[in-house]
Design brief:
The complex is a heterodimer of chains A (657) and B (551).
Chain A (H helix, E strand, L loop, with lengths): L6 H48 L8 E11 L2 E9 L1 H24 L6 H20 L3 H19 L6 H32 L4 H9 L5 H18 L8 H4 L5 H10 L4 H8 L1 H6 L4 H20 L5 H21 L3 H28 L17 H15 L5 H16 L1 H26 L40 H16 L18 H10 L10 H4 L1 H24 L9 H4 L4 H49 L4 H22 L4
Antiparallel strand pairs in A: 1-2
Chain B lengths: L12 H18 L7 H23 L8 E9 L4 E7 L1 H20 L6 H20 L3 H10 L1 H11 L4 H34 L6 H7 L4 H18 L8 H8 L2 H11 L1 H14 L1 H6 L1 H20 L4 H20 L4 H32 L10 H4 L1 H15 L5 H16 L1 H26 L5 H4 L6 H19 L2 H21 L17 H28 L1 H4 L1
Antiparallel strand pairs in B: 1-2
Helix pairs in contact in B: 1-2, 1-4, 2-3, 2-4, 3-4, 3-11, 3-16, 3-22, 3-23, 4-5, 4-6, 5-7, 6-7, 7-9, 7-10, 9-12, 10-11, 10-15, 11-16, 14-15, 14-20, 15-16, 15-19, 15-20, 16-18, 16-19, 16-22, 16-23, 18-20, 18-22, 19-20, 19-22, 22-24
Classes of the chains: A mainly alpha (657), B mainly alpha (551).
Chain lengths: 657, 551
């Protein structure tokens, strides 16, 4: 079955091509169903390969499946090849699994949109690219997927392209990501010049054998991290992700929460042996970027009123946790959190989509409230997601976050403390969100006749537009949107079982399942924390973690439900520390000025010189023509003077004669 | 040795490739005015016949042979050692094919609006001139073709161009002419000096390059005489300012041909004549060219960002893209030079297609001003999709052709010119900036009254665009057949440079390979290779065939 791994990307590719050719004829909802079926088929193929690997010995679980020679020039031999191993298959499983659910949800969400089939065209292309990214045997195949998902992200953010803000957000995402891509490209060049190949196996084997110099390893690791910072929206390149919420909500769930944005973390895990042999400061640098981003984004999430913006900053914050894990050598924990995060964040985004849908395209939480009564299933599943992300046991997020914090403490207490504060803030802003949306008083009645809000979604079904006129009542979403919510909430509850810690009450044979599954892939880079203080006081850490979650939730309840404490939402937070605005202002101001300067330099100076020469030639010629008098005596005189000068030059200067 | 036996063919195919368009041009020019439909037919026929011959050439080209193939050599002006010497190798093969295929598409797809007869005749002359330049292996013959090319282009810009056409045409003509003047002097001097070494006067490129050796300083002077002509043609910063004017003012056909093949005369000239004749001087002067190339990449991209005219924007993007090609040539590695060679084709296809699309926009809206265009995607989604694919290729998104060339160039140049490459790679960010910004302004948003009437891509336009998109996808997914034909020639050229300098090409080798299941993996690779790749290519060609309709 492992040799059939190409089926995993093949299904979504077939879906893409079919919809490309017949999408219009298939229409709504057939093209959606077809796309969904292709992604689920891909999921089944992943399961097949997974069970195949499961039956093998640990040492045999890594295969290279080469399709064809892609870019062969001289010593540079790059195949379009897949690396099948526990890491890539785990990624495939959750990408296609969650991808399938979100496809299904989209059939309901996008119903009635004029570009319905086009949406699924892009979505299938995205899944295809994403599977290439995770299955790539070398950096170039990964980069193919990397840029593919970036391009799809651009298409989908700008999906409602007639809206200025959507178009701008799409462009911003692409260009910001390109900054990161610059790093990835240089990493490839450096890898080739150092080891003659950009294949992961070669790179990692060389690193493990000690043949990769520290300088080279550092270079590759840092450059790839630059790429990861772009793709996974970390400081200082995170600015595109909040804007990316302009895309339809399923897109935010799939691309900008569950899958694409985790690609950077995946890449770091993939090259963990290289990271392990790079300079001492690389790990801490990654950890600090991660934890600072996590805290920074959490503070911003605290003061947003747009339901999707909260989730966007929350995603940035959670990705920060994953980088904290990578930086402290907790690769298993990073992947673990990536998976549980995919479950609960996809759930939360889809839930918010359901809310937006039911609220007739309203995204402002100030105009919501009391929705539990009107959309009980959405609300219940959303609450599951809330508890999972807040870190309440036994929900999935609790286990993974706990493991990250454990490694952080083993590495550096400051990292741990910041991580814990972020956990508290996470619980707080999520509680705020849940209360503002589903509980409290219904604020939408006062806005019911407002026309200003729902100008979203051109082509959104007009029948459902009941906001503009008279009676407005939020409604529960159709079943097809609720099924994914229910499935995801089950995963968000129970997802933690894939990697349980060695605590009391946990049976030995279900502990650390993910870790032993990934063992061969991460063993070289994984930090060993056995015997550290943190490891020995696991129970205490769990208490701290639970306490931070509980305090956060309690605080949120007191502030937003009981209104005992005045909310503290400074404009610094609401405006994202003014970072994005400063960047934009710089780009629009001095940045643009300098570009204009170059353009002006080109037309005035460079081209001016050319035209100047032309003018000078014309002028000189006109002047020279006056010299052509036709008088022989004048010519003779000139010849005479010239001869004397020439002779003089030869005699005096050159010393001839 | 280079004039290999394999080339001695009964039918002088290369001569035919040069002559058929000339004959076509003459017939078109002499056509009676009473039959207005005939010239187009004849022009199409002769250019298509040329194109078909180039396709045949490609299919019978011996892969793995580094030397010149299909050589035809006849003494012409014997006392001066001038001969009609044509040949094709890995460097010129695909340029010839591109020239062969581009012209029929341009003739079929673009309407000149007035004076069709001379327009077609000039286009055919242009095709002959370009073909001759790419195929000549005699300095004298090359020079003649190199100069001939200017004349039709001058008349095309001057006769069928836009508001500022006379200024642009004159500027183009004088600028390139000035460069060529240096080259003429260079050629004569080269032949004269080489005559001492060779014991006879000959203009034959191969004989001079293989037989003559120039003193370092002499070689450098001679190289620069050639290099100026090529640098203007590429164009290399700061000699580029004729390009935006010429591109903008030229009729669509002129722009497509200019970007598609004519700029390549410069980079091709560097490879064929500069490096081959004067390896020492080329290698010695590489810091200069690398620096100018990198400046061109960044500078061209920045200037492109700020253009308000869509055509000027694409023209400046050419400056940036050609910078990559120059960088690759003067990095002197197998990867970078192969990359430059394939990038000449890729740039020709992508930028050619971009000019074609901009031309279609002008046809509909009679303006190229970005500020006057908006919301086109809403009224013409298929047109927008076509533009998008071409644009992504130009940006260098992997899976499309532009990336393959850029990647190879940068990978190779990183080995010998690390810091130049680091800066050059930043050009990739800028490419996304100027193209996506332009795309947003022109295609996104709500169309205003004027743009609401924007006509969707017609079937005929789609048919012209389709081959471009097919190549864009195919070369991105499966460039191997092209690379396999290019590489042997590049290897020989590098060896030639190594023989004349103390340069040794760095070749990184794998220290530890893939340890997992090596035997089995190899088997898979081999087995899958033929079937899979063929399939992949077909599939992708097919899907793009319907890109338009599906959207």
């Amino acid at each position: 079955m492992a040799e059939l791994v190409w089926l995993i990307p093949a299904f979504p590719l077939v879906g893409f091509l079919t919809i490309l050719l017949f999408g219009r004829r298939m229409g709504d909802p057939l093209s959606g169903w077809f796309a969904t079926a292709m992604v689920f088929a891909s999921f089944i193929a992943s399961v097949g390969v997974y069970s195949d690997l499961l039956g093998m010995d640990e040492a045999e679980r890594s295969h290279v499946e080469s399709l064809f020679s892609w870019v062969p020039v001289g010593n540079l031999q790059i195949d379009l090849a897949f690396l099948v191993d526990p890491l890539s298959i785990t990624m495939c499983l959750f990408v296609t699994g969650i991808g399938g659910l979100i496809h299904m949800y989209s059939i309901g969400y996008m119903h009635g949109d004029a570009k319905f089939s086009k949406f699924f065209l892009y979505l299938n292309l995205f899944i295809f690219s994403m599977t290439l990214l995770v299955l790539g045997e070398n950096l170039l195949v990964t980069f193919l997927g990397w840029e593919g998902v970036g391009t799809c992200s651009y298409f989908l953010i700008a999906f409602w392209q007639t809206r200025e803000s959507a178009a701008t957000a799409g462009k911003k995402a692409f260009i910001t990501n390109r900054v990161g891509d610059w790093g990835v490209m240089l990493a490839m060049f450096l890898a080739f010049s150092a080891v003659g190949s950009i294949s992961y196996s070669v790179l990692n084997n060389n690193a493990e054998a000690g043949l990769l110099s520290e300088t080279t390893a550092t270079g590759i690791a840092v450059l790839l991290f630059v790429g990861a910072v772009g793709k996974s929206a970390q400081l200082p390149l995170y600015v595109w992700l909040p804007d990316a919420m302009e895309g339809p909500t399923p897109v935010s769930a799939l691309i900008h929460a569950a899958t694409m944005v985790t690609a950077g973390v995946f890449l770091m895990i993939r090259i963990n042996p290289v990271l392990a042999v790079s300079a001492d400061w690389v790990g801490p640098m990654i950890a600090w970027v991660g934890v600072v981003t996590a805290l920074f984004a959490a503070t911003i999430a605290l003061a947003q009123s747009d339901i999707k913006k909260v989730l966007a900053y929350s995603t940035i914050s959670q990705l920060g946790y994953m980088f904290l894990a990578v930086g402290t050598g907790a690769y298993v924990a990073a992947l673990f959190h990536m998976i549980t995060h995919a479950f609960f964040k996809a759930l939360l985004f889809l839930g918010s989509g359901s809310v937006i849908h039911g609220m007739n395209d309203e995204q402002d939480m100030n105009k919501m409230g009391k929705l539990f009564k009107f959309m009980p299933i959405t609300a219940s599943t959303f609450i599951v997601g809330w508890l999972a992300i807040a870190g309440v046991p036994p929900f999935a997020g609790f286990w993974s976050k706990d493991e990250i914090l454990l490694f952080a403490l083993a590495d550096n207490t400051a990292l741990y403390v910041l991580g814990l504060i972020t956990a508290l803030l996470t619980a707080l802003y999520m509680t705020r969100m849940v209360i503002m949306t589903f509980f409290g008083e219904a604020k939408w009645t006062s806005f019911a006749n407002d026309d200003e809000a729902p100008e979203v979604a051109e082509g959104e079904e007009p029948i459902e537009t009941h906001g503009a006129h008279g009676e407005f009542k939020p409604h529960e979403s159709p079943v097809i949107m609720l099924i994914p919510l229910v499935v995801l909430s089950v995963l968000a509850i129970a997802g933690g079982v894939i990697q349980l810690p060695s605590l009391w009450g946990v049976p030995d044979d279900v502990e650390h399942t993910l870790e032993s599954w990934l063992h061969a892939q991460v063993i070289f880079g994984e930090a060993d924390i056995t015997g550290t203080w943190a490891d020995e006081h696991l129970g205490l850490l769990v208490l701290f973690a639970v306490a931070s979650a509980v305090v956060g939730i309690l605080l949120g309840w007191l502030i937003y439900q009981r209104k005992r404490i005045k909310p503290w939402e400074p404009s610094l937070f609401a405006n994202g520390w003014f970072y994005d605005r400063a960047v934009t202002r710089f780009m629009g101001g001095p940045g643009r000025k300098s570009f204009e300067g170059v353009a002006e330099f080109d037309s005035k100076v460079v081209d001016g010189a050319v035209n100047g020469v032309a003018v000078a030639v014309t002028e000189t010629a006109t002047q020279a023509r006056k010299g052509q008098t036709g008088y022989v005596r004048q010519y003779a005189g000139l010849i005479g003077i010239a001869t004397v000068l020439l002779l003089g030059w030869f005699v005096v200067i050159r010393g001839i004669l | 040795m280079l004039a290999s036996e394999a080339g001695t063919l009964a039918f002088p195919i290369l001569t035919a490739i040069v002559l058929v368009p000339i004959v076509g041009a003459l017939i078109v020019a002499l056509m009676p005015k009473s039959r207005p439909e005939l010239p187009k037919m004849v022009a199409l026929l002769s250019s298509a016949a040329t194109g078909a011959m180039t396709i045949w050439l490609m299919s019978s080209f011996e892969t793995g042979d580094s030397g010149f193939q299909f050589v035809s050599k006849h003494e012409w002006i014997e006392p001066w050692g001038i001969s009609w010497h044509l040949g094709v190798d890995g460097i010129s093969l695909f340029l010839v094919v591109l020239t062969g295929v581009l012209f029929p598409l341009v003739i079929a797809g673009i309407d000149p609006h007035h004076d069709e007869r001379p327009y077609l005749a000039w286009l055919l002359m242009l095709q002959a001139g370009v073909m001759g330049s790419f195929l000549s292996l005699d300095l004298f013959v090359f020079f003649i073709f190199f100069e001939i090319v200017l004349v039709p282009m001058y008349f095309l810009i001057g006769g069928w161009g836009y508001e500022n056409r006379v200024y642009a045409a004159t500027k183009f003509f004088l600028y390139t002419m000035l460069g060529s003047a240096f080259m003429l002097v260079g050629i004569v001097a080269t032949v004269a000096i080489a005559a001492d070494d060779l014991g006879k006067t000959t203009f034959d490129l191969v004989e001079i390059a293989e037989g003559a050796s120039f003193a370092a300083s002499t070689g450098r002077w001679l190289f620069f005489a050639f290099a100026i002509a090529f640098a203007v043609k590429v164009p290399i910063f700061p000699l580029h300012t004729w390009l935006p004017d010429a591109h903008t003012q030229a009729p669509t056909a002129g722009s497509v041909v200019l970007a598609g093949v004519m700029l390549k005369l410069g980079t091709y000239g560097f490879l064929r004549f500069g490096l081959y004749l004067f390896p020492e001087a080329s290698f010695w002067s590489r810091p200069l060219w690398l620096t100018l190339a990198v400046i061109g990449i960044i500078y061209g991209a920045i200037a492109a960002t700020m253009q308000m005219d869509l055509k000027r924007l694409v023209a400046y993007s050419s400056v940036a893209h050609m910078g990559f090609i120059v960088l690759g040539i003067f990095a002197f590695t197998t990867q970078s030079m192969s990359g430059s060679t394939i990038q000449m084709i890729n740039h020709g296809v992508s930028t050619g297609a971009l000019f074609l699309l901009v031309g279609m926009i002008y046809e509909r809206r009679k303006t190229r001003k970005i500020s006057e265009l908006n919301g086109i995607q809403k009224v013409a989604p298929i047109f927008a999709a076509g533009f998008m694919i071409v644009m992504l290729s130009s940006i260098g998104v992997p899976g499309l052709n532009g990336f393959v060339g850029e990647f190879l160039i940068l990978t190779g140049s990183f080995l010998t010119a690390r810091w130049w490459t680091v800066v050059a790679a930043a050009g990739v960010i800028l490419a996304a900036l100027y193209l996506l910004w332009a795309y947003q302004r022109v295609f996104h948003g709500e169309p205003d009254e004027e743009n609401k009437k924007f006509r969707e891509l017609s079937l005929k336009e789609g048919m012209v665009l389709l081959p471009f998109i097919g190549v864009i996808v195919f070369m991105g997914v499966y460039p191997k057949p092209v690379l396999d034909r290019i590489e042997p020639t590049i290897d020989v050229l590098i060896t030639h440079v190594e023989a004349h300098t103390d340069y040794v090409e760095p070749e990184p080798t794998i220290q530890i390979g893939v340890v997992i299941d090596h035997g089995e993996e190899g088997d898979h690779g081999e087995e899958g290779e033929d079937n899979d790749t063929e399939h992949e290519g077909d599939e992708d060609d097919g899907d793009d065939g319907h890109e338009g309709e599906g959207d």
